[in-house]
Structure prediction request, 120 residues.
Amino acid sequence: MQRKTLIALSAVILMALVGCGEPTSVEEGMASFYADSFHGSETASGESYDKGAMTAAHRTLPFDTKVKVTNLDNGRSAWVRINDRGPFVEGRIIDLSGAAARKLQMIETGTAKVRLEIYE
Prediction:
């Protein structure tokens, strides 16, 4: 992607996020992420899972909900869009795409304690 296109896209995303205001709710708990083998599989929303996209699975949030996920161990944050259901492991509150997990620097540990700021 060309640098100018990347800068323009980042500006548009930032403006959209600034307009979100305050989160409608906040959750804390454990996050995990999809295995690479799920890449291309159909999600509950009907989309194909893309390990490079900033998406996630949540048990109850509506599809297309925007969520700011913060790794409480290192302070790194990522914005994701809910497009699937899960996780189906007790004690976990969100399953992240591979790209989101990399941004949060949780690939090595496999899970992380996170805060979700939900913008519905």
Notes: The longest strand covers residues 25-33. The radius of gyration is 14 Å. Residues 6 and 12 are 10 Å apart (CA to CA). Residues 22-119 form a domain with the Barwin-like endoglucanases fold (CATH 2.40.40.10).
